[in-house]
Amino acid sequence: MSGLRVSAAIERFPTAGAWTISRGTVSEVEVVTAEARLGGKVGRGECRPYARYDEFAEGVVIDIEAVAGQLGNDPEAVDLAALMAPGAARNAVDCALWDLRAKLAGKRVWQLLGLAEPGPLITAYSLSLDTPEAMRAKAAEHAQRPLLKVKLGGPEDGDGDLERIRAVRAGAPEAKIIVDANEGWTPESYAELAPELLALGVAMVEQPLPAWDDGALADMARPLPVCADEACHDTASLRGLAGKYDMINIKLDKTGGLTEALTLKAEAERMGFDVMVGCMLASSLAMAPAVLVAQGVAIVDLDGPLLLAADRDHPLTYDAAGVHPPTPELWG
């Protein structure tokens, strides 16, 4: 049996139309795919390097290649947390190793972890930042979906954010709505917008204030529940979130993989946080391990593949029941 080998490559997927958030617009996403090989079996994992965290695809490949020779020959014995910092590169390797372990054992990852068999989950469907008129039309197109996530623009946009939510509500009168400010608000804009958004049936806002300047959340009323996204990375980051946030958003690209994501979930629940499991814009391979983490959480946001013009072979199934667990051909 040849030794454990890990490699990485950059792949690109076009988006289904321009995708816009408060930080900019993209028409293509760049992901890094890691492969772990042993005994004729191949495990795969995918990450989406994110510039907000000073991550870029070329650098992630370098980070993975740098650690490839330090993993030994036993995938069960790899202590990845001792070799790599949390982030996209570790996520791709961690998920590739879990996929490889499952293939070597002839079992599913959820069985190896001692988890219950996963089922389908209702997931949010995200609406790109746009004019209120365009967002109303997009909301109407997806009005049958039970949960819509709306990207917002920030205080420099004047009354635009409120008008966008009014438009989305008009287009999708029955849908549950959550909003993502992507660090674009101020304490004053939260205080002004929260009552209005609650009246429109908005259930939660993600990261209204910048992660580096969110102290005001501890001293202000939060009638509209606040979820930590950019402020929450791994278990160690939880200590600074208590009293400021009501919910945390777990993304595997932030935790550094499935292993830490499950630990973060358990500790967050122990501390009394509600849990959301989200994603970067990426393919079904990136979503697949997150489906395991998302079982039983308050909000699931794993719609990345629905926003792409192309996906992996053996992609995740999305239907009226939500996003289904991956088949072994895709991952795990």
Question: What would you say this structure looks like, in words?
Answer:
With 332 residues, the protein is an alpha/beta fold. It is built from ten helices and 13 strands. The chain has helices at 57-67, 80-83, 88-105, 109-112, 132-141, 160-171, 187-199, 252-255, 258-271, 284-293; strands at residues 5-21, 24-38, 41-47, 125-127, 147-151, 176-180, 202-206, 226-228, 247-250, 274-277, 299-300, 318-319, 322-323. The strands form three sheets. It has an eight-stranded parallel sheet with strand order 4-5-6-7-8-9-10-11. It has a three-stranded antiparallel sheet with strand order 1-2-3. A two-stranded antiparallel ribbon has the order 12-13. Strand 2 (24-38) and strand 3 (41-47) form a beta hairpin. Helix 5 runs parallel beside helix 6 (160-171). It is globular and about 60 Å long.
Features:
332 residues; alpha/beta; 3-stranded antiparallel beta sheet
